[in-house]
Here is the input.
Amino acid sequence: FREIAGVDVDSQDRVFVFCRSASPVPPLMVFDRDGRLLDSWGDGKFERPHGVSVAPDDSVFLVDDWGHAVYKFTPQGELLMTLGTPGKESDTGVTNSDYRTQKRVAGPFNMPTNVAFSSEGDIYVCDGYGNARVHRFSPDGKLLASWGEPGSGPGQFALPHGVAIDDSGKVFVSDRENTRIQIFSPNGEFLEEWTDVARPCEATFDKDGNLYTAEVG
Here is the structure.
């Protein structure tokens, strides 16, 4: 391993580990629940691995933050769909990959971070390092809505880094540098915020509805 950027598990308890490995070591490795290597793929496909999210149908979404794209693969590594234009960032005016220099919001993507799915199959992407937005896509990749802008008020972001969706469809966004989790309706209406966290990076729900969050602070 070298700098593990993300991990997720599919319906068969296969563990998908996304690493910033050096070629020829593939960045995506698949293990069984006891840690035995089952498969690996993706060498040369990504500028810098970031998030990995396994969809309910076991398709695998991989986020390439420096490549400004999100990819949907089969569990075996066959490309099914691409969100964004690989290698082309949206124009937010950000410089040196520093979210604090962002001058405006834009469409997908400028250094996206992580992905989550609604029960209807909609795809939510945090566009965090270079664009203070959350984007909602249909299951076939059509952009449905975007929300957010730089700042610290309700509905504003300072590096939206992680996202999770609960059973009711509410969207939980890890607003990392504002050190809070903001909660929205499926369409981006601000509902409330949780501030008893320290620079949350990502969030995920378990089968009992508990929310787990990883902190960098």
